[in-house]
Amino acid sequence: MSRSSRHEARLLSVDEADLVARSHHPRLAEADDGGLAELVARLRESRDRARHISRRQRRELRGKADPSGARAATDNTGTRRKAAVLAAAVKRASKESERRRNARARGRLVTSSRRALAMKQAAGDPGPARPSTREAHDGMRPVPNDGLAPSGALDSAGHEIARRRGGGPR
User: Fold this and answer.
1) What is the DSSP letter of 129?
2) Any alpha helices (H) in 23-152, and if so which ranges?
3) Considering the entire predicted model, what is its pTM?
């Protein structure tokens, strides 16, 4: 579900709202790689902190934890929504980081492929080592197996014992 910037700003502190605003499209594309990595790290810290607070408030609501402030938490929906907004920002920034990494890898692959093609073309024609056609010509030639007896006697010797045990031929 998409949220408006106004709705996000209402849930977040000023610093967190600035981080989330930097994770949206026009400003995200302008960030350099180092700035993007720093943005992802700071967003993750904020998201983890909001998750931790939300879980603590939920435990206070159920009575499993002592109140951390002057009074016990009565609701944690705001903190949960804040964590969801920060998680979406982390997802956007991480996706952009992954997209950039894949683009760099694709560029390196193209460069190395072009260099390999240039090297192959510079090497020239491989010459007579390769046939000019893909014909089989004479085809396969039989290779004699010296391990077998010429009459096939070794093959039938194994069946002799089985025939004696089985009571004769079938």
Assistant:
1) G
2) 25-30, 33-62, 77-123
3) 0.66
